[in-house]
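Sample 1 of the test manifest.
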Amino acid sequence: MTAVAEPAMSIVDEPVVAPAPAAVPFHEHEAKPRDILIICYSGELEKTWATMILATTGAAMGAKVRVFLTFWGLQTFVKDQKRITGDNAMQKMMSFMQRPGISHRKLSKMNFLGMGPWMMGKLAKQYKVASPRELLDLAKEMGVEFMPCQMTMDMFGLKPEDMIEGMGEPVGAATVIALMTEGSAPLFI
Amino acid sequence: MPLEIAQRVDAKGLSCPMPIVKTAQAVKLMVSGQLMEVLATDAGSTKDFAAWCKTTGNELVESSVEGGVYRFVLRRK
């Protein structure tokens, strides 16, 4: 009796034992780090800097980094030489009031009509801190993906040719949420 | 076998994140098992290089500091 019952038991037990959790520890040496998704929303100099530092470092550490560019953060990625952007008067006025481009960022505090950013730039040079512009070039070189927000492009009247070279296809919020649900570490800057 | 350095990165004077960024770029030029020497003066580098190695799986063979210069020897995985 027992000789027959035992194999029968083990067959029944097997499926219960089989689905072992296939959890791969994130910091395991061989494991690839989690993807990183930075939502670049703000346009201030210091926040642009933070975005670019984290994006390049993430890429340097082997993570796939994506940067979603939206609202004021999208204006940062308009070509520096563009002065006025947009189709209608209001869009043009917006770009006039806040000059687009990564080299024309203002500080949220102590801007003093550009005196703050100028001093910040001087200090950065002195301490060999790479500028947001330099970090952007490195980020592109290292495979960081930039995804402009289609809705912001429309609202500001921005065209693909207004944007810095190397930006990806414009996307919407669903792409961003999908990346988050798939496990990208999200950062809202 | 003597430790032969295949790549050298001089990141002295550079601030975060450039020492790590330069290292990540240089490691791409190496083959598995080769050694790289990095020199840096950024006081955060001891922790940063340990973290970089832990995440990327490259081996931190040596980590030392002398006269304000941090020296790291890394082996490409």
